[in-house]
Amino acid sequence: MSSSGIRLAQIDDSTRADLFALRVTPSQLRFVGSVQDALNDAAAYPHANPWPRAVLAGDRAVGFVMLSWNVVPQPPDLIGPWFLWKLLIDESHQGKGYGRAVVQLVADLVRAEGAVELLTSYVDEEGGPAGFYRSLGFEPTGEVDGSGEVIVRLRLRDDA
Ligand SMILES: CC(C)(COP(=O)(O)OP(=O)(O)OC[C@H]1O[C@@H](n2cnc3c(N)ncnc32)[C@H](O)[C@@H]1OP(=O)(O)O)[C@@H](O)C(=O)NCCC(=O)NCCS
User: Fold this and answer.
1) pLDDT tens digit string along 115-125?
2) pTM for this structure?
3) Domain 6-155 in CATH: superfamily?
4) At how many degrees (to 10) do helices 35-44 and 13-20 cross?
5) Which residue has the least CA distance to atom 9 on ligand 1?
6) Are 73 and 54 contacting, i.e. CB atoms less than 8 angstroms apart?
């Protein structure tokens, strides 16, 4: 549980329908697919060790997050070991601090597993999540992934 009152939960029959109903704004669609797309990706790329979770505020699903959990990196297609693969907050719940809280929860979880950095990537275009990740302390690695997305990292230890 984070200070914003959210928690991450495994996906089961009680959360699946709510997750599939999550929506981003039409202009954000090019930056992230649907939850269904993400779960299809998870099934298609088991070697990416997908770790999908519902983002719950109380009993209500307000978002979705998926990591690549401690993979052996094979750049440019498989980034890791700890990669924030998908993150979305429902449009009606954006701007409330949930996105920030999810990243903090995930960072705490993977740090406890020994991670020294959390990586992610994004489409670097107007209206995208670049400013969000910058405000959380992510910095460019100078690399791009196989789709040309900018790779950024959040240091989880001072010596990283
Ligand atoms: C990006 C996203 C996850 C942010 O979630 P959110 O819950 O609205 O973000 P928060 O309310 O926690 O905002 C945290 C900080 O980031 C800033 N921020 C949020 N979105 C931003 C954006 N697009 N550009 C610049 N800054 C942004 C907020 O102003 C806030 O800053 P502050 O704490 O200094 O006030 C959400 O907008 C979303 O789901 N977008 C569509 C999907 C997407 O692009 N996902 C990421 C790529 S997979």
Assistant:
1) 999 999 999 99
2) 0.95
3) Gcn5-related N-acetyltransferase (GNAT) (3.40.630.30)
4) 120
5) 99
6) no
